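Students often ask why we bother encoding 3D structure as a string. The short answer is that it lets us treat folding as translation between two languages. Here is a chain of 202 residues written in the first language.
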Amino acid sequence: VGDIDSLRIQELKGLIRKGEALAACRVCGIPENKAHFMNLPFYETGAVKKKPHTSKDVEMTIKLLREVKPEKIFAAGDLSDPHGTHRVCLQVIFDAIDEILKVGDAWIKNCEVWLYRGAWQEWGVNEIEMAVPLSPKNVLRKREAIFKHQSQKDRAMFPGPDAREFWQRAEQRNINTANQYNLLGLPEFEAVEGFVRYMHLV
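And here it is in the second language, the structure alphabet:
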């Protein structure tokens, strides 16, 4: 929908998003040199709708994974993202991991992949395999990091009946998860972030 952005506009938007991401890294205490911006081809359409991912996207992801050799990968498992970007990114990661497993890189044997969800939906407490308690300070830090994404943080483009801003959705999701655990008899926390493990590596 709408006009396709020119290459110059795409570059400017990319710079804005990179700046926002780096600002969020600073809030979270992550050194800027640890941030990698991949500019995957599937995303570079200049339009809201993105292209299907290809082997090029997977190859670029494999290259980065082999450079970093992560022990843990945290990926958005929020497949209700209205633009579908999270779903495509997740599939690229899965495809990259599958290829690395086929080759048998030694480091991948010790790598865990954990999926989190964003503002759109939450894992059920019966699905969550790792629950990370958040203190009030953690919640405020997460909110501040979200606020750094100025181009993304306000009302969702397609909010449906829910008019809350993105940060409000995400924060309330974490609080609701904590409340559910508390009702089950677990300690009371300000909020809880839930993760589900991608079982392919087990």
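Translate back mentally: The CA atoms of residues 62 and 96 lie 5 Å apart. Keep this in mind for the problem set.
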